[in-house]
Each structure stands twice: as C-alpha cells, then as structure tokens.
C-alpha cells in the first residue's frame, strides 16, 4: 500500500517562496502522475499541477508562472515550489498520486495534507 | 477550462434516505474522465468513483455513479452515518484538471 507524506514549513512570509516535499513509501514513483492539490480553509479543491515519472510536467494556468514541480527518483520524492506568495496561497496542500486505470483515472492515494499559512 | 458546477450546495437528509448529487460540466466530458471523491473534516479526499461509474476498491455498492456528456450524478442509495461528508466531482478530460465546488451531505 503506497503512502504519501508532505513535509515543509507551516508558516511562510508574503513574497517568499514555498517549498514542499512529498515522500512516497511502499511503492515506486515510476509509472504514475504525481500531483499537488490545495484547499484554502473552508473551501474547495484546486489542482496545482503534476509531474509524470518521465519528468514531464503540466501546471494549472492560474498558477503556472509561479509553480515548479520536480522529481527525485533516487529518494522517491517529488517537490513543489511556489513563488511570490500572498495570503491567497494560504491553504492545506495535498500531494496525491494519479493512476491511469482501465476503469478511468483517479487520485487513488493522498497525503494527509499540510497547512501552509502565508503571513 | 472546464467548469464543474455541483448541486445542491448542501443536502440535508436522514440516515437510510437516498442522496442524489449532480455535477454539470461547462463542456462535454468523456465518461472515462469523470471521478467522484468523498472528504470528511480534517481528512484528505478519498476516491469513490472513476470513469463515471466504476467504484474504487472497497467502496460499498450503495454508491453509484452515472451520466454522460455534461451531466453526471452520484447516488447514495441508503445513507449510512459515515456517509455524511462533502463530495466533489472532478474531470481529467481537459487540462487544467478541475474539481466541482462540492456538495455537503449533512444530517
């Protein structure tokens, strides 16, 4: 059973850069899409972007100019960098695995989420 | 960008009742690329349904999904106490992947 765990600072100052890491255990980082998703307090889910195990990326246009997702296959980790933070970036950040199955794609494994406050 | 609009925003029901949740897309979504998630307070979302109607592993058969084109539905045939939560639809057909705003099923 694959498990995902986010790590990173809980408090970041405005205009600074957020760096989060997701460690994948119990399975390989190969053959899947690895995503970041966020959820502002009391609100819905927003997909930030993904990195495929090959290294190709796809970002939400609303964040594209500020986002970088990278992969560290040797440590079974992937990371999120989000620059020029504002209070609007305050959210719970989830890492998740997107699996393309015959039954259709889905985010089938999630981290527990980490609250990032910009203040 | 495909906008997913879920209705109603809140559904107030009792255990044992049937819940019908709607997800309407701003343009056609392939049935292969529509999923439903359940989220409880303080937890990550959990996959319920992929490909419009395929239950994920371990999901009870009281959950069913259907629809096509721009209109999709999640039905919970008989609500159990653990089903009271927020439900999100999500599409993978076009980038950016988008979620609906959620439907809260409350007692």
Quick structural overview:
The complex is a heterodimer of chains A (119) and B (107). Helices cover 0% and strands 56% of the residues of chain A.
Query: Residue-averaged pLDDT of chain A, rounded?
Result: 95
Number of helices of chain A: 0
Name the chain pair whose interface involves the most residues: A-B, 23 and 27 residues
Whole-angstrom Rg of chain A = 14 Å
Largest sheet of chain B: 7 strands, mixed
- The helical percent of chain A reads under 10%
| Mean of all residue-level pLDDT scores of chain B | 97
Estimated radius of gyration of chain B:
13 Å
Distance between the termini of chain B: 34 Å
Taking the alpha carbons of the first and last residues of chain A, their distance comes to 36 Å
In total, the number of strands of chain A is: 11
Q: For the report, how would you describe the main beta sheet of chain A?
A: 7 strands, mixed
State the order of secondary-structure elements of chain B, H for helix, E for strand. EEEEEEEEEEE
| Fraction of residues in helix of chain B | under 10%
């Amino acid at each position: 059973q694959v498990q995902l765990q986010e790590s990173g600072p809980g408090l970041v100052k405005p205009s600074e850069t957020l760096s989060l890491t997701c460690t994948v255990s119990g399975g390989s980082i190969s053959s899947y899409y690895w995503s970041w998703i966020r959820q502002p307090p009391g609100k819905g889910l927003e997909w930030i972007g993904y990195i495929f195990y090959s290294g190709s990326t796809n970002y939400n246009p609303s964040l594209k100019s500020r986002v970088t997702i990278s992969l560290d296959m040797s440590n079974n980790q992937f990371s999120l960098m989000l620059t020029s933070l504002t209070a609007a970036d305050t959210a719970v950040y989830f890492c998740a695995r997107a699996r393309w199955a015959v039954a259709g794609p889905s985010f089938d494994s999630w981290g527990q989420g980490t609250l990032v406050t910009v203040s | 960008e495909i906008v997913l609009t879920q209705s109603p925003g809140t559904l107030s029901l009792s255990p044992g009742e049937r819940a019908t949740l709607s997800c309407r897309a701003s343009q056609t979504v392939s049935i292969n690329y529509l999923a439903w998630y359940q989220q409880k307070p303080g937890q990550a979302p959990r996959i319920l349904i992929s490909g419009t109607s395929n239950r994920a592993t371990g999901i009870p058969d009281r959950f069913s999904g259907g629809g096509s084109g721009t209109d999709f539905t999640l039905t919970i045939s008989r609500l159990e106490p653990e089903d009271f939560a927020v439900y999100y639809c999500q599409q993978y057909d076009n980038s950016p992947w988008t979620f609906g705003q959620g439907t809260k099923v409350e007692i």
